[in-house]
Amino acid sequence: MNSNINVTIKKSNNEDLLTFQCAEGINLLEAMNAQGINYHADCGGRGTCGKCKIQVVAGTLDITEQDRRIFTEKELQEGFRLSCNAYPSEDCTISLLSEVETDYIAITDYKINRIEVKDQESKAEQTESLQHSYIMAIDLGTTTIAFSLVNTVTNQMVKTHTMINRQRSHGADVISRIKAANEGKSQLLREIILDVLYQGFQTVIDEAGIEPKEVLKVAIAGNTTMGHLLLGYSCETLGAYPFVPVDIGTIHLNFGELFGDRLQIPIVVLPGISTFVGGDITAGLLACGFDYEEKPCLFIDIGTNGEMAIGNKDRVLVASTAAGPAFEGGNISSGVGSLPGAISHVTMSADKPIYETIGGKPPIGICGTGLIDIVSELLKTGLMDDTGLLGEAHFEKGYTIEGITLTQRDIREMQLAKAAIHAGIEILVKQYGTTYQQIDKVYLAGGFGYKMDIAKAVHIGLIPEELTGKIEAVGNTSLAGAIQYLTDTNSVESTEHILSVSKEINLSNDPDFNDIYVNRMSFDHR
């Protein structure tokens, strides 16, 4: 076999993207990601999601059993393949059939009165005469990573930056990452995230026009899996019962220890509450004031996992429910993340869809907010019944908007995710010993929640309708909490207090969870 195989990559518009040499025994998905082409597979490269589609333009790629499960015979003859199962044995040219994730839209905004830092990048020149000192907060997410640089003298946000977490090539959710780590890719995953964080740090300070030594401290907030992969901890105990983390306490180290650099900037990794309720949620509870709230409040962060908390300054219960990656485009046949061209909002007028895409670009797929909107509109217009069954006109081929199709299977996938979130909220409220009426505020955290149509989320039963009127979308609370941790003199004490009064509830151990979960798959709210 030729060990120096030349691979040419073309974009979906036939424009040349890159030519590189692919080593023997490496599949094209891994090879492309190694070249910086962010072409991911929701399934972690197991050949089941069908998202890493390519087409052979020149050369030959063997047809695999995974290819046969995804593509029709006609498509196979036309050269359609899954890049995760494509091992080139000769020079070849391939065309990408999905979008490269170069412009993933991540949310850095937050709406929390307690955080006094204001986004005033345009006024940075007003502070030139003042002594400059900065802190950097990082939200280390499963899908995206957000950076925020704050001037501690003026309390102004100087620069924000977002990047894709390139670990996505090894799966869309934490379970896939844990599996990959435990199958020998732990060091690779660590190297990927260290490289992304270092690039992000350098980009922020370069764009801000400051020296690295002017950054006094860095805080990182992320879920437990991301923290383990970052710090090089084993993930073996995260993926098997009883799901014990290596360390979820507050971790202090410096820049040089983490990145092999001479910089000695102190770095703190925020503590988590449990294996599945990590430092990103701790940061969110800090930002939302759970250390001083008198009345019970509800915190919900909907992503690949649905993390939630209920409580006040005296007692907090937390839980996590495996919603799956449906709300981030995973496991949805035409699902994509927050990319330009993703269908993000839909309304029906005379049974015809009026849609919006991110950035106003031509539609390339459906993101999470668009998924909720479409399902809500199908339900409202009667094109789908209360059980989630599409009408006869769309049952076989699905419901299509501008060539982008939502299938019956996609709707079932979304039902599983929304039922898990709703059931989790319901059990948490019950276990706390309160009622929906007694809950004072509902904080809907995360980028997905920030852009979501709350009324439609309630309509499909993602969020209990009894909470209507109490829900506030507060944005990136992980980033906000990391900022607060570095700028508020009482934040360390406040964080420790939140940890001390918090207790995790295992939803699967609740005798009512399965019944509620099954019932909430229906769109009938009764």
Summarize the structure.
Helix content is 30%, strand content 23%. It has helices at residues 28-34, 65-70, 73-77, 174-208, 224-231, 255-259, 279-287, 368-381, 392-395, 408-432, 446-451, 454-459, 477-487, 491-501, 513-519, and strands spanning 5-10, 16-22, 53-58, 80-82, 92-96, 118-119, 134-140, 144-151, 156-164, 215-222, 251-254, 266-269, 297-302, 306-311, 316-321, 342-349, 352-357, 365-366, 399-401, 404-406, 441-445, 471-475, 502-504.
Please provide a written account of the structure.
The strands form five sheets. This protein has a seven-stranded mixed β-sheet. It has a six-stranded mixed β-sheet with strand order 22-21-13-14-15-23, sandwiched between helices. The chain has a five-stranded mixed β-sheet with strand order 2-1-5-3-4. It has helices at 28-34, 65-70, 73-77, 174-208, 224-231, 255-259, 279-287, 368-381, 392-395, 408-432, 446-451, 454-459, 477-487, 491-501, 513-519, and strands at residues 5-10, 16-22, 53-58, 80-82, 92-96, 118-119, 134-140, 144-151, 156-164, 215-222, 251-254, 266-269, 297-302, 306-311, 316-321, 342-349, 352-357, 365-366, 399-401, 404-406, 441-445, 471-475, 502-504. By secondary structure, it is α/β, with parallel strands linked by helices.
Largest sheet: 7 strands, mixed
Strand order of the largest sheet: 6-9-8-7-10-12-11
Estimate the strand proportion.
15-25%
**Counted beta strands:** 23
Nearest-angstrom radius of gyration? 23 Å
Gross morphology is globular
Spatial separation of the terminal alpha carbons: 63 Å
Please state the structural category.
alpha/beta
- Average of the residue pLDDT scores: 90
Low-confidence stretches: 120-130
Discrete helix count: 15
Q: Give the fraction of residues assigned to helices.
A: 25-40%
